[in-house]
């Protein structure tokens, strides 16, 4: 395994902050990019790419409405969602292999931080005491219950290959052994991970981010009661989650261009590389979305079960080929 | 001196009871007598614990640690039974179930019964032991049929016929032992009274003819086994125990069975000398497992709580048989502890079940419910008694059963332990099922308090049972001393 | 050790006082004494864990024909500590909780006995001593389940089930231990451990299997779990907490003590079997937890789940140590112990919280609860904390345990035998799946039970419970946080216990300072840093939003698609919340659903009323236990004919016996 | 009478067994009781012969005792029971008479096989006859199992007892006197007890058909 060279703390903190900033900005833009791509593919002009950021700004200016039954949970949840995502971003090696928390937390922490975010949101959905919130929470937790295991096993597969669950080490290892990227373990894990990412970020064919038809909503139903800045936080959290997952996929499988020497120039290079990779993934996903319809809620488990099996297969092949 | 007293006290009490018409005082007098017997038993145990044996009446009476221990058991259970007698007789007379005349007869027979059992354990001569055991049958017949109901008469008929024929086989066995002893004794066909004495039998036990002894032991186990209540000769037991008045059921289940088992222990020691342990062990294992299986099977769907207790006696006698099969000193010590613990527990249970019968007017499990709510004290005593009976700590039966199992495994009988543990689990389930019906549930009426005079002795007895289950001193010493009499 | 004996003595006195004193005094006095006892026990166990040399006492004055032997070693000390922790909280809780049945003479006499036996089992050092306290534990807990028997038929059934199954288990344990003494010099653990090597392999395996049966059923492992979902909910809350937190752990202790310590590791397939049981239990428990709508029942099933994970860890550790990977073995073993300690804390807290809810709202049925978060702020807060702990939110105790376990499994993968690899693999899978399901179950428990609108009059009238109960629940929440934020403080003790328990002699530190650092493998988790980062992020976000937000906040009616009033009946219920998952796993859960529609008299196209019922029965109980019980009942009825009252038949029994004997002898 | 000793002994012992088998054969309870009395006399004869042969005073006393108790007292008691219960015939035994006799012969064979080991210890004119005693015991037991009448059960019990007594005389020329006395007393008392019980049962339940006693069962 490759031990990460220690580098000055200032650099690492700066790197982490930069990561957070990049992902927070890039997340909404990716959403915009994806809807734009879809619009174009469907022959529409579509809203500008920066539309999501505009929406956020508008929401910040609006009033915070809360239903009379809600408790503290409803107030805290948006903050928790965004905070956990931000910390996860700070842990993950996105533009450099030396993020601040890289050595003090690993991929398991990232996975469980994401789980925390979904739990917080699901509780918030139930807090309003309405039918839709409950429906959304129930559905998203059901999907999460099947997606989380697949995610966990997929990252375990990667950890087995690198014989550590420490993200920077995995990435550095991939850099050191390009062969890893093309190993069957990686490919299986990649597919599994992509399925999970689709589920976790509520994209087609699992959830339709644009619908507000009650019976088909999942994520949107959960956050139905949110408004104003709270809604902004939740939306930003979701976007950041999407950004993080895309970035992780990008770097775990194609880590090229990530800053590994600990030089500030490297960081800039890393940012550029990251943006490029993420945009590619986003466009890819968007194109795929154009050609798929949303599946029935009770077909979703089959999809996720498939992802889970692939992840397990990834671990097995990892064990066999090691 | 002590042993004369042990025989005389209950006998004189019987004479007194016969002399004057029934009066509740008679009951208390009987209790005092039983208490004296208990005290004498303790004194005897203390003086024989060193391994010495007291003989009296030209060697007709011989008290070693084992006999002394049995005297203690008899005294303890008789005390418990006698303490309830006056109450039972009073309400039976009040409800004209019985008459003062019958009550007097009851008191006399009670004392005769106790005297016979004492004679059985104090006799030096195993023939006399047989006579005494057979006499207990006669003494108890009219105690079983005391109530003069159809059922009690039926029970006592079955009791007498089954036990007499069984015990007759035991006599045949004794005769064969005697025959073997004469021919082992060297002095031709000339018999003399001492040949059947314990000491002289043990002296020649290794020279006894195996063929004869094998037959004899088989007959003895069948014969005394009938009285002990071992399957398949157990059939009289549930009938008699369920029909007799509560104190008599307590005495029969608590000590009569174990007095017969005491006889088996003696003969087993002789047979071990002649045959080695293998054959007696095989016999005891067969009857022991059989009894456990019978008890377990018939307890599952049991409908009468007195019969339930009776079958549990069959179970415990089976456990004793398995313990005897192991035969080591530890095993026998555990067996004796079990005899004491079972005696106390079972008499407590029969006495409290008598109270329940009196209060509820039925012995059907289905018709009695939520006793804990409706009669807290009585139900509590019954429930705790059941816990003790099922061999849960801290009661004595846990220690005894654990050590019997240990000894059996040491003797290579681990499969026996496996089977018996299985049966015990089934029995536990059955008892739990019936106890739920009897004890648990909500009371319709407001709680009824049972008289303190009834509950107090039972509580004390259960406390004692728990104490001997936890504290080793001084019982352990006596147990090992007694075990050494019949175990190498 | 002496302190522990003091603790046992205090418990004994407490039970005596509980039996003798009048009503108000007995509860207070026995609770206070038990509290003192658990403090003593905690102190002694800590001293043992911090490396005080192993002490042992033997008394011939107790237990006739065997004597009593006790030894306090690090392995036992862990479990003494677990019991002490829960017992302390419970005894405080009692001061506020006790009402009606639990205040009865018998209950206040038995609860200290239960604690006593729980404290004594891990230090028992001879078969006799162990069985004595084991059975004492079984008896006291059985009677404590029955405490509510007057008003709850379920309590009576639970008593019956628990009593019978625990007795079966005890029998199998006893037999197994006795088989070990066949060649052993005696029944003391020391001599068994000394002679175990001489035993033939078959005997050792038989013994381990028998013991495993007994202990696994006490630990509530599937398929021997049938008693647990009945007993834990029916017992009075303090008893449920003790059973779920401490008693279940004794089952794991037994497996470790016999398999790891006395038999010195044994063979590979033992541990594969243990892990397999664990996997099944984890998935089964988690799944049923998602389907249950009784708050305490949900907690009971989640106990099966967590114990399953612990058994996975134990099994993996055993397998790894047998195949010589001591480092990974230590890791998994420590993880299992940490998970067990954490479970005692959060499950105890959850049960105490559930009891508080039951008392405040008068029901445990999630479908009748809701809206408690604002009525019982303290209880809800503590319950929420415990919930997050079991969901394994980072920097809380549950996560530390699962993180270590995953690390252990991950690093165990390096070049071991195939059975071990498979064990580790299914371990990972089980951990992952049960993690997701647990999240669903507990989002349901808290979200439906405490948030939203009250679904019943009882819930809407709920008022906060006495301070003592809140304090007790809070006390158990302390470890939940402590073990999560600074696991490094406790882990060295656990790894000492693990090394002693499995004879690993690995001694590779797993912790540095407050954080978990795998000295041998690449991997670390520094909860304090992560926590700091979270705090910073929260603060930053809060500041930014409160600066950016330009308008205030307002309370309005929830949006109901233009419908005015949102009645509580419109909310998702626990059943509906779990329904999608139920559909996914319908083949395992096999719910019996019946929907009956009463139509309007005018036209069958208009419904007047809908009655929907959705029951999920325990699959194992339905398909295994019930048929067996029915079989026994049939057999029992059949053999009654044996004693048909005919004296001739009775005589014939004896006669045939005589003839058989004569023929055999002839 | 040294020469006549063995044949006489054989004759007397044989008589005991014949009486036993005859009790199985006859149905009239009165006749059965008579058979029992004859058997008692025969038993006493065996004891007497042995006593005179071994010059054993104690045995002579026993013989007299046996003659008194088993020859006259016990049968007398039974006759009183029978008289109190007119028309009491062993109507339908559970095993019919021919089958019973066949079974009895099987039992006799078995008893010969069993007692071989016993005889082997000290073969003598007396011990050769032990099988007869065993057979009597078994036949008595068989009667107990198969006969419905209360009285015939008592008789069965006494057959068992006589058989054992016969074995006793033949093997060991009687057990110690104290035991002998005790045993005899016990037998007497048992019969008395049973007789009283029969009376009670008849008063209470109005039958001496034991099949009526089926109240107590599981």
Topology summary:
The complex is a heterotetramer of chains A (322), B (488), C (666) and D (218).
Chain B: H1 2-19, H2 24-48, E1 54-56, E2 61-63, H3 65-94, H4 100-122, H5 126-144, H6 150-185, H7 198-204, H8 210-228, H9 236-243, H10 246-275, H11 278-300, H12 305-326, H13 329-360, H14 371-374, H15 376-389, H16 396-410, H17 414-439, H18 452-470, H19 475-486
Antiparallel strand pairs in B: 1-2
Chain C: H1 2-20, H2 23-49, E1 55-59, E2 68-72, H3 74-97, H4 105-120, H5 127-145, H6 153-180, H7 189-195, H8 201-219, H9 228-234, H10 237-262, H11 268-291, H12 295-322, H13 326-361, H14 372-375, H15 377-390, H16 397-412, H17 418-450, H18 457-460, H19 467-485, H20 491-502, E3 511-512, E4 515-517, E5 524-525, H21 527-548, E6 553-556, H22 574-584, H23 586-589, E7 592-599, E8 607-615, H24 619-639, H25 647-665
Chain D: H1 2-25, H2 29-54, H3 57-84, H4 97-121, H5 130-146, H6 150-172, H7 177-205
Helix pairs in contact in D: 1-2, 1-5, 1-6, 2-3, 2-6, 3-6, 3-7, 4-5, 5-6, 6-7
Offer a quick outline of the entry:
With 666 residues, chain C is mostly helical. Helices cover 69% and strands 6% of the residues of chain C. Among the domains of chain C are: 267-545, no CATH class; 619-665.
The count of strands of chain B amounts to 2
Strand order of the biggest β-sheet of chain B:
1-2
User: Percent of residues of chain C in helical segments?
Assistant: 55-70%
What is the rounded Rg of chain B? Answer: 21 Å
Largest sheet of chain B: 2 strands, antiparallel
β-strand percent of chain B reads: under 5%
Query: Uncertain runs of chain B with pLDDT below 50, 5 residues or more?
Result: none
Task: Please report the total strand number of chain C as a whole number.
Answer: 8
Distance between termini of chain C?
63 Å
Structural class of chain C: mainly alpha
Quaternary status: heterotetramer
């Amino acid at each position: 395994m490759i031990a990460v060279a220690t580098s000055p703390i200032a650099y690492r903190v700066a790197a982490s902050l930069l990561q957070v900033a990049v992902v927070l900005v890039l997340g909404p833009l990716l959403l915009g990019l994806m809807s734009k791509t879809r619009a174009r593919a469907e022959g529409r002009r579509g809203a500008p790419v920066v539309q999501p950021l505009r929406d956020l700004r508008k929401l910040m200016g609006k009033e915070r409405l809360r239903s009379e039954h809600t408790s503290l949970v409803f107030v805290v949840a948006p903050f928790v969602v965004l905070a956990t995502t931000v910390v996860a971003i700070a842990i993950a090696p996105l533009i450099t292999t030396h993020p601040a928390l890289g050595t003090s937390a690993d991929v398991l922490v990232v996975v469980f931080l994401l789980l925390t975010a979904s739990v917080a949101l699901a509780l918030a959905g139930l807090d309003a005491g309405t039918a839709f919130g409950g429906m959304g929470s129930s559905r998203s937790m059901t999907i999460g219950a099947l997606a989380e295991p697949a995610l966990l096993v997929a990252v375990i597969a990667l950890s087995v290959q690198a014989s550590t669950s420490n993200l920077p080490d995995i990435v550095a290892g991939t850099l050191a052994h390009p062969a890893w990227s093309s190993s069957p373990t990686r490919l299986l894990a990649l597919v599994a991970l992509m399925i999970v990412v689709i589920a976790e970020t509520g994209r087609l064919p699992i959830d339709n981010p644009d619908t507000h038809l009650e019976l088909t909503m999942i994520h949107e139903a959960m956050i139905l009661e949110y408004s104003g800045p709270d809604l902004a936080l939740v939306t930003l959290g979701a976007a950041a989650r999407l950004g993080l997952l895309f970035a992780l996929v990008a770097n775990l499988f194609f880590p090229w261009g990530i800053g590994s020497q600990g030089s500030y120039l490297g960081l800039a290079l890393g940012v550029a590389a990251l943006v490029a990779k993420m945009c590619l993934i986003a466009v890819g996903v968007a194109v795929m979305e154009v050609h798929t319809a949303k599946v029935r809620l009770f077909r979703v488990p089959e999809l996720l079960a498939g992802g889970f099996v692939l992840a397990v297969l990834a671990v097995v092949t990892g064990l066999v080929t090691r | 001196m002590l042993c004369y007293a042990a025989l005389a006290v209950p006998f004189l009490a019987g004479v007194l009871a016969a002399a004057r018409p029934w009066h509740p005082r008679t009951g208390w007098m009987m209790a005092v007598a039983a208490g004296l017997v208990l005290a004498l038993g303790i004194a005897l145990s203390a003086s024989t614990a060193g391994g010495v044996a007291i003989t009296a009446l030209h060697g007709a009476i011989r008290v070693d640690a084992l006999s002394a221990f049995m005297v203690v058991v008899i005294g303890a259970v008789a005390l418990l039974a006698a303490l309830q007698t006056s109450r039972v007789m009073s309400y039976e007379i009040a409800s004209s179930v019985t008459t003062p005349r019958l009550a007097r007869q009851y008191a006399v027979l009670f004392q005769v019964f106790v005297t016979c059992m004492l004679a059985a354990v104090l006799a030096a001569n195993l023939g006399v032991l047989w006579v005494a055991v057979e006499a207990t049958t006669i003494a108890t017949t009219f105690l079983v049929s005391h109530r003069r109901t159809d059922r009690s008469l039926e029970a006592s008929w079955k009791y007498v016929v089954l036990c007499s024929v069984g015990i007759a086989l035991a006599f045949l066995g004794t005769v064969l032992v005697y025959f073997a002893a004469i021919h082992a004794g060297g002095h031709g066909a000339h018999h003399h009274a001492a040949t059947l004495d314990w000491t002289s039998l043990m002296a020649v036990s290794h020279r006894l003819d195996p063929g004869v002894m094998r037959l004899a032991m088989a007959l003895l186990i069948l014969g005394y086994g009938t009285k002990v209540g071992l399957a398949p000769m157990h059939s009289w037991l549930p009938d008699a125990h369920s029909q007799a008045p509560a104190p008599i059921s307590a005495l029969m289940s608590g000590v009569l069975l174990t007095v017969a088992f005491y006889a088996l222990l003696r003969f087993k020691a002789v047979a071990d000398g002649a045959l080695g342990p293998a054959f007696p062990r095989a016999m005891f294992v067969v009857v022991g497992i059989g009894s456990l299986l019978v008890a377990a099977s018939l307890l599952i769907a049991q409908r009468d709580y007195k019969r339930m207790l009776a079958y549990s006696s069959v179970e415990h006698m089976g456990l004793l048989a398995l313990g005897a099969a192991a035969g080591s000193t530890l095993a026998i010590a555990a067996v004796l502890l079990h005899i004491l613990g079972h005696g106390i527990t079972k008499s407590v249970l029969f006495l409290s079940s008598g109270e329940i019968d009196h209060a509820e007017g039925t012995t059907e499990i289905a018709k009695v419910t939520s006793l804990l709510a409706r009669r807290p004290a009585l139900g509590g005593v019954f429930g705790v008694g059941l816990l003790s009976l099922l061999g849960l700590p801290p009661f004595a039966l846990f220690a005894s059963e654990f050590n019997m199992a240990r000894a059996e495994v040491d003797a290579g009988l681990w499969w026996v332990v496996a089977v018996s543990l299985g049966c015990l689990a089934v029995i536990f389930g059955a008892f739990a099922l019936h106890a739920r019906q009897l004890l648990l549930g909500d009371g319709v009426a407001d709680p009824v308090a049972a008289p303190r005079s009834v509950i107090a002795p039972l509580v004390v007895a259960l406390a004692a049972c728990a104490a001997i289950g936890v504290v080793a001193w001084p019982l352990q010493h006596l147990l090992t001393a007694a075990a050494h009499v019949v175990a190498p | 050790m002496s302190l522990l004996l003091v603790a046992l003595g205090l418990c004994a006195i407490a039970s005596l006082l509980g039996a003798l004193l009048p009503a108000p005094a007995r509860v207070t006095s026995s609770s206070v004494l038990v509290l003192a006892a658990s403090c003593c026990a905690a102190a002694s166990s800590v001293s043992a864990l911090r490396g005080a040399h192993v002490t042992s006492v033997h008394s011939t004055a107790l237990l006739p024909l065997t004597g009593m032997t006790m030894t306090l070693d690090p392995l036992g000390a862990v479990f003494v500590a677990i019991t002490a922790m829960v017992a302390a909280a419970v005894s405080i809780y009692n001061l506020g909780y006790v009402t009606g049945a639990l205040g009865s003479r018998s209950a206040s006499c038995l609860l200290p006995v239960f604690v006593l036996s729980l404290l004594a089992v891990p230090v028992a050092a001879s078969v006799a001593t162990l069985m004595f306290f084991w059975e004492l534990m079984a008896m006291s807990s059985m009677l404590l389940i029955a405490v509510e028997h007057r008003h709850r038929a379920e309590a009576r059934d639970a008593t019956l089930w628990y009593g019978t199954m625990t007795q079966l288990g005890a029998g199998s344990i006893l037999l197994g231990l006795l088989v070990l003494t066949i060649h052993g010099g005696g029944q003391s653990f020391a001599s068994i451990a000394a002679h175990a090597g001489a035993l033939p392999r078959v005997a050792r395996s038989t013994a381990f299997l028998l013991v495993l049966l007994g202990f696994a059923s006490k630990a509530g492992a599937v398929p021997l779990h049938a008693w647990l979902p009945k007993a834990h909910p029916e017992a009075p809350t303090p008893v449920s907490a003790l059973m779920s937190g401490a008693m279940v752990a004794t089952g794991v202790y037994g497996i470790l003590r016999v398999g790891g310590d006395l038999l010195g590791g044994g063979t590979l397939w033992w541990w594969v079997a243990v892990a397999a049981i664990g996997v099944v239990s984890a998935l089964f428990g988690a799944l049923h937890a998602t389907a249950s709508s009784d708050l305490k029942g949900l907690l009971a099933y989640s106990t099966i789940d967590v114990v399953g994970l612990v058994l996975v860890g134990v099994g993996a550790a055993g397998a790894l140590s047998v195949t010589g990977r001591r480092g990974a073995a230590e890791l998994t073993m420590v993880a299992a112990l940490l998970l067990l300690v954490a479970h005692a804390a959060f499950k105890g807290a959850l049960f105490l919280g559930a009891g508080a809810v039951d008392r405040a709202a008068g029901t445990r049925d999630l479908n009748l609860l809701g809206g408690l978060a604002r009525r019982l702020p303290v209880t809800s807060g503590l319950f929420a904390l415990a919930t997050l702990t079991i969901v394994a939110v980072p920097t809380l105790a549950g996560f530390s345990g699962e993180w270590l376990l995953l690390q252990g499994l991950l690093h165990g993968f390096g070049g071991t035998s195939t059975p071990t690899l498979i064990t580790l693999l299914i371990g990972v899978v089980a951990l992952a799946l049960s993690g997701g399901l647990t999240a669903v179950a507990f989002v349901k428990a808290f979200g439906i039970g405490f948030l939203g609108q009250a679904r019943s009059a009882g819930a809407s009238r709920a008022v906060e419970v006495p301070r003592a109960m809140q304090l007790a629940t809070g006390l158990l929440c302390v470890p939940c946080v402590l073990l999560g934020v600074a696991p490094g403080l406790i882990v060295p003790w656990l790894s000492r216990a693990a090394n002693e328990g499995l004879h690993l002699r690995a001694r590779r530190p797993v912790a540095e300072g407050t954080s978990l650092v795998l000295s041998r493998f690449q991997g670390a988790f520094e909860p304090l840093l992560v926590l700091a980062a979270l705090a910073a992020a929260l603060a930053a976000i809060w500041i930014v939003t409160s600066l950016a937000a330009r308008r205030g906040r307002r309370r309005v009616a929830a949006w109901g698609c233009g419908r005015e009033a949102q009645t509580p009946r419109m909310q998702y219920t626990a059943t509906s919340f779990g329904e999608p998952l139920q559909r996914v796993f319908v083949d395992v859960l096999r719910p019996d659903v019946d929907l009956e529609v009463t139509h309007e008299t005018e036209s069958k196209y208009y419904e007047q009323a809908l009655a929907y019922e959705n029951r999920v029965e325990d699959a194992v109980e339905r398909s295994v236990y019930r048929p067996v019980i029915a079989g026994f009942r049939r057999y029992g009825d059949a053999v009654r004919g044996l004693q048909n009252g005919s004296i001739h038949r009775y005589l014939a029994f004896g006669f045939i016996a005589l003839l058989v004997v004569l023929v055999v002898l002839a | 009478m040294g020469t006549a000793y063995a044949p006489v002994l054989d004759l007397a012992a044989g008589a005991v067994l014949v009486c036993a088998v005859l009790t199985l054969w006859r149905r009239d309870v009165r006749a059965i009781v008579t058979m029992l009395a004859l058997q008692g006399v025969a038993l006493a004869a065996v004891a007497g012969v042995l006593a005179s042969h071994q010059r054993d005073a104690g045995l002579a006393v026993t013989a007299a005792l046996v003659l008194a108790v088993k020859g006259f007292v016990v049968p007398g008691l039974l006759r009183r029971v029978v008289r109190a219960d007119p028309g009491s015939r062993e109507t339908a035994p559970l095993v019919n008479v021919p089958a019973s006799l066949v079974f009895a012969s099987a039992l006799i064979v078995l008893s010969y096989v069993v007692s071989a080991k016993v005889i082997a210890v000290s073969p003598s004119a007396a011990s050769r006859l032990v099988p007869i005693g065993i057979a009597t015991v078994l036949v008595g037991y068989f009667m107990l199992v198969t006969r419905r009448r209360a009285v015939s059960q008592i008789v069965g019990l006494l057959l068992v007892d006589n058989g054992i007594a016969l074995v006793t005389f033949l093997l060991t020329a009687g057990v110690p006197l104290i035991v002998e006395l005790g045993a005899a007393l016990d037998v007497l008392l048992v019969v008395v007890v049973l007789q009283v019980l029969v009376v009670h049962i008849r008063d209470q339940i109005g039958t001496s058909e034991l099949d009526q006693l089926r109240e107590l069962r599981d």
